[in-house]
Amino acid sequence: MAKKLDSSFVNMLLSLTLISAGMAAALALVYISTKGPIAKTEKEKTERAVKNVIPPFDRLVTKKIAVEGSDSITLNYGFKSDSLVGIAVETNTSKGFGGKIKCVIGVLPNGNINNIGGFEMRETPGLGTKLKDPKFLTQFLGKNPTNFKLKVKKDGGQVDAITAATVSSRAFCDAAQNAFTAIEKGGKK
């Protein structure tokens, strides 16, 4: 039978170090093995959102644009033959109540909003998450920011805020405005 180690500071420190190193290695292995599948799933989710927000296309041209107050915004120009059918804008804002809000906004060549989808957010369930509800989103469809002010009514805009979720509503308006700012910077191709 093996002799029991003394309960000394050095032995306890050595034991804890070995256990910590083993757990760190296990966590690293899990991270490495799940990194690829997670990235693939995120890419597929974004591709589905792009297809859902603009009319059918046969070619997609992607461009990243820097917009002040947000991460870089991706413009996905959808073409059918050589005609632009829409721009799917992967936009974001960090002004949400729960932090960052990301979504994909489809814009037609005339500048009108076609559809909205692909949400990622950490807003309050039952309040801020109502950003995804058709009741909120339909007020944007067919609208163009040249004649529709992308701000909640409390701020002088034309958007009906979600009751008890004004911060989230403002944040969505900010993300939508970021999308149109990126289109202006990036051009309509």
Number of distinct helices: 3
3D shape: elongated
How many domains make up the coordinates?
Answer: 1
- Which regions are unreliable across 5 or more consecutive residues at pLDDT < 50? none
How large a portion of the residues is in β-strands, by DSSP E? Answer: 15-25%
CA-CA gap between termini: 78 Å
- Portion of residues in helices? 25-40%
The overall pLDDT, averaged over residues, is: 92
Instruction: Give the number of DSSP strands.
Output: 5
Polypeptide structure, described:
The chain is an alpha+beta fold and 189 residues long. It has one domain (49-186). Helix content is 37%, strand content 24%. It is built from three helices and five strands. It has helices at 9-53, 134-137, 166-186; strands spanning 59-65, 73-80, 83-96, 99-107, 113-120. The protein has a five-stranded antiparallel sheet with strand order 1-2-3-4-5. A hairpin with a 2-residue loop joins strand 2 (73-80) and strand 3. The chain is elongated and about 85 Å long. The N and C termini lie far apart (78 Å). The mean pLDDT is 92.
Comma- or semicolon-separated keywords:
about 190 residues; alpha+beta; five-stranded antiparallel β-sheet; about 35% helix
SSE blueprint:
Layout: H1 9-53, E1 59-65, E2 73-80, E3 83-96, E4 99-107, E5 113-120, H2 134-137, H3 166-186
Antiparallel strand pairs: 1-2, 2-3, 3-4, 4-5
